[in-house]
Amino acid sequence: MPSVTTILSATESEKSKAGLRQWQDKNPGALEAAATRGTAIHLACENYLRGLDPGVPEEYQQFWNGLSQYLDWFDTIHWSERPLRPDWNDLRSDDKEVAYVWSTEHLFAGCPDLIGEIGGVKVIADFKTSNAPYSAFSPDRGDRVGYGGWRKFQKCAQQMAAYRYALNERVGFLCDVALILVATEETTQAIFIDGDQLELYESRFLKRAKMFHELFPEDNDNEAANFSP
């Protein structure tokens, strides 16, 4: 069963794929460095939510600064990389090392970063690090930085909508909103996506999932145990 991020990457336009290849050619090692940075900040968030020392490496401290204030918004935590409530333990792997949500109807799976509640509102959240801010609004013509932030937001919004759908399919828990926390060296953003918007992004993602399985029928496996991130 393919991951949500695999589906999103595989169904990008050829223009977008070519642009990413060009960027990688001009910035060797940047993708790997960003992944390492993202892993460090994800671990810091997970540690903080569990009451532990975030343990942020010095080189990523600027990305961490400002994040904890948003994590403090949560009154209740149901999931932090894995379920924290016993009635969701079926979402863990057999060895209990990893956890994920999945859709047997649309054949995709993934691992949300955080699911909880803020003032009784059910929230699914995702942590992102970036060299530039995200943008929930379409940029002005010629604004390349704004366009990059807008495209990242669009992709993340579909990712969140997919996780929300799969979680509801599995355990009947429907999140009211999504929250994207974006950390850059200069600032931290908290971008909410309401239920109506999530339904729109869900529809877009499900179309891409259908496209993916038409392009790669060998991945039409409905066994979540065969999910690979």
Would you summarize the structure shown here?
With 229 residues, this protein is α+β, with helices and mostly antiparallel strands. The chain has helices at 4-10, 14-26, 30-49, 61-64, 68-71, 144-171, 195-215, and strands at residues 76-80, 101-103, 108-110, 114-118, 121-129, 177-183, 188-193. A 5-stranded mixed β-sheet has the order 1-4-5-6-7. A two-stranded antiparallel sheet has the order 2-3.
Tell how many strands the DSSP assignment holds.
7
> What is the SS-derived class?
alpha+beta
CATH-defined architecture: Alpha-Beta Complex
Mean pLDDT across all amino acids? 90
Provide the CATH topology.
Answer: Lambda Exonuclease, Chain A
Report the sheet with the most strands, covering strand number, pairing sense and barrel closure: 5 strands, mixed
N to C succession of SSEs: HHHHHEEEEEHEEH
The best one-word shape is globular
Describe the structure.
It is built from 7 helices and 7 strands; from the N terminus they run H-H-H-H-H-E-E-E-E-E-H-E-E-H. Strands 1-4-5-6-7 form a 5-stranded mixed β-sheet. The protein is α+β, with helices and mostly antiparallel strands and 229 residues long. It has a single domain, classed as Alpha-Beta Complex (Lambda Exonuclease, Chain A). It has helices spanning 4-10, 14-26, 30-49, 61-64, 68-71, 144-171, 195-215; strands at 76-80, 101-103, 108-110, 114-118, 121-129, 177-183, 188-193. It is globular and about 50 Å long.
